[in-house]
Design a protein that fits this description.
The protein is 43% helix and 14% strand. The chain has 580 residues and is of the alpha/beta class. The strands form four sheets. It has a seven-stranded parallel sheet with strand order 11-12-13-14-15-16-17, with helices on one face. A five-stranded mixed sheet has the order 2-4-7-6-5, with helices on both faces. A three-stranded antiparallel sheet has the order 8-9-10. The chain binds one DNA strand of 29 nucleotides through helix 2, helix 4, helix 7, helix 9 and helix 14.
Length: 580
DNA sequence: GCCGTTTTCGGCCCGACTGTTTTCAGTCG
């Protein structure tokens, strides 16, 4: 069983226990464990073998022994007994908006409802309105919730889809009267790779007006909920958005609250309690009455004795302890990126010429650009034969002369790691290139040993500088190859090969958990956008978001380095005495 | 079920919104 499968079991247990009416803190404990395991960034199997399960936060004696049973037998007796007690179909019912564990349990015990279909039927037949606290409007709401659940299928959408929509909403709100300031909040501001909904935080005097105007925007399909300080809507394209409006003098605490994560906020509120204060989105409440207002986030953190914590770190994954010790990591930023190591042109499957790509990179202030078109076996992407690769080198030279010294063009390739593990160009061809990125695009579903061996082979080839999108995962829709990521990281650390954080929002590979593990181990990384057109350069910020969420400092990212340091690294095997 | 510069037992955040109620429970983030 892999991490995700184990996490799913604990999430299921949490749902079932909740319906059963088990005490909430037990339920929370299972959820916490599921979340930690899901974000572990290293294989649970490895920790299990080393008898280190208890080092995972939120994993104590009971959960550790359940993990042990799962990894040994692939099953969990506790979960099976629970599933016999509480119908697992109710888990779907829980996903309906407005239905929580209490109602789900009532539906089941009073009406025998055990599936989403049962619930729909009962609501249509008007059987729910007799229950305590429920009337005809509740039935309507539940039917709408079921419809919406089916339409949305998956709850979260990729950040690449949500962010542009969010920015356009933000621009609309900025134009509204009495608005001082608008910021993205929630998981978008934290740069999570998927987001549940778009959260926007507004500082304005006239909250009622902002809420009214927002609810009336043409993009809004329907209003899900509306109050004095917030409004929640579903947009025409199915995305959901939530807007909070607070007066400017409370903006800091409100932004902090709306940014989350929930787990981070819980920790902060505990810290506030230790200081005899109560923290909410409105600010701090003092015990005898009286308030402390915070117009900036810095002020919120300062009152808790902490430096400001970057939103990307706010997940309760050690950032609060690090802040208390004054040891928050220095994080790589978009401005740190000096060059791009992964760009395609019309020579393979890019949409623009080398010169167009170069000029676009220059206009963004980049100092170097590697042209890395696909290699010969990747026919679908018009991969370059050795002959075309040679001719391309001449064009790169020509373009370099035309554009001048402002941008250094480097000759590269994205060489295919073939299914048998061999690289798609012979070593003497690779040796003549400045930067070699080796990637897998085919046979990603090979057995773990095989696909890991392919990557290890590429890393050990002294001509290879970067491993491109190492696991082959796609944010929406494709699982990563089953690579032994620990082994890959160890080997990359050993050889000085950089692992790519592919910044394209469809990929984001390495993901944040693997990026964090890589940074912990001191592996070199490269934040590359894999550009196929000039506009793709704009997407680099998504890769930076992943890196920051992975606590990656700028020094480990090779394309933050100036060109002379980069070149010294590229020459690392060519110095005599090394690796002979 | 987890966890400990208050504790190995007794805690474990805080408020808005909804729908149904005359004061609140449930849900959500």
């Amino acid at each position: 069983m892999n991490n995700r499968e184990v996490a799913a079991v604990f999430d299921l247990i949490a749902d079932l226990l909740e319906i059963k009416g088990e005490q909430v803190y037990k339920v929370l404990a299972y959820r916490r464990a599921a979340q930690e395991i899901g974000n572990l960034g290293r294989s649970l199997q490895t920790l299990w073998e080393a008898d280190e399960l208890r080092t995972i936060p939120g994993v104590g004696e009971a959960i550790a022994s359940k993990i042990d049973e799962l990894l040994r037998t692939g099953k969990l007796e506790f979960a099976e007994k629970l599933a016999a007690e509480v119908p697992p179909g109710l888990v779907e019912v829980l996903k309906v908006e407005g239905v929580g564990p209490r109602k789900a349990a009532r539906f089941w015990k009073d009406l025998g409802i055990t599936t989403l279909a049962d619930l729909e039927q009962a609501a249509r037949a008007g059987k729910l309105r007799g229950m305590p606290g429920m009337g005809a409007r509740s039935e309507e709401r539940i039917l709408k919730g079921i419809e919406s659940l089916r339409r949305r299928q998956v709850g979260r959408v990729s950040i690449g889809r949500a962010r542009p929509v969010a920015l356009s909403l933000l621009a609309e709100i900025e134009r509204m009267p009495s608005v001082h300031r608008v910021e993205l909040a929630g998981s978008l501001r934290r740069w999570r790779e998927t987001v549940g909904d778009i959260d926007l935080l507004v500082a304005a005097e006239d909250a009622a007006q902002v809420i009214r105007l927002f609810a009336g925007l043409p993009q809004v399909d329907r209003v899900l909920g509306q109050g004095d300080t917030k409004v929640s809507v579903e947009l025409q394209d199915g995305l959901r958005a939530q807007v909070w409006v607070h007066p400017p003098e409370r903006f800091g605490s409100a932004l902090q609250y709306a940014t989350g994560s929930q787990a981070h906020n819980v920790r902060l509120r505990e810290l506030a309690q230790q200081r005899g204060l109560s923290l909410s989105e409105h600010g701090f409440k003092k015990p005898g009455g009286g308030e402390i207002l915070c117009d900036s986030e810095e002020e919120v953190y300062r009152r808790l004795g902490l430096p400001w914590v970057p939103p990307e770190l706010r997940e309760d994954r050690g950032e609060i302890q690090a802040a208390q010790r004054g040891q928050l990591p220095e994080l790589v930023g978009l401005d740190d990126l000096a060059g791009e190591l992964h760009a395609h042109s019309t020579w393979s499957d890019g949409q623009n010429s080398i010169e167009e790509m170069a000029r676009a990179a220059m206009s963004l202030g980049l100092r170097y650009l590697v042209i890395s078109d696909h290699s010969q076996s990747l026919g679908v992407a018009n991969g370059l034969s050795i002959e075309r690769l040679r001719r391309q080198a001449k064009e790169i030279e020509t373009v370099q002369r035309r554009i001048g010294a402002g941008l250094r063009l480097l000759r590269g390739t994205e060489v295919e790691i073939r299914a048998d593990g061999a690289l798609d160009y012979p070593d003497d061809v690779l040796r003549q290139l400045d930067v070699v990125t080796a990637s897998m695009h085919t046979s990603l579903r090979q057995a773990p040993e095989k696909v890991t061996a392919r990557l290890l082979g590429a890393i050990r080839n002294p001509n290879v500088d970067v491993i491109g999108h190492p696991t082959g995962r796609m944010v929406e829709g494709r699982e990563p190859a089953e690579v032994d990521i620990e082994a890959i990281l160890r080997e990359a650390r050993q050889t000085g090969v950089a692992l790519e954080i592919n910044a394209h929002p469809a990929r984001l590979d390495l993901d944040e958990a693997n990026a964090r593990r890589a940074a912990e181990m001191g592996c070199l990384l490269a934040i590359n956008v894999d550009a196929h057109s000039p506009s793709d350069f704009e997407l680099r910020e998504y890769g930076v978001g992943v890196a920051r969420r992975g606590w990656v400092p700028p020094g480990l990212v090779v394309n933050t380095w100036p060109v002379d340091r980069l070149e010294a690294w590229l020459q690392r095997w060519k110095q005599p005495g090394i690796r002979d």
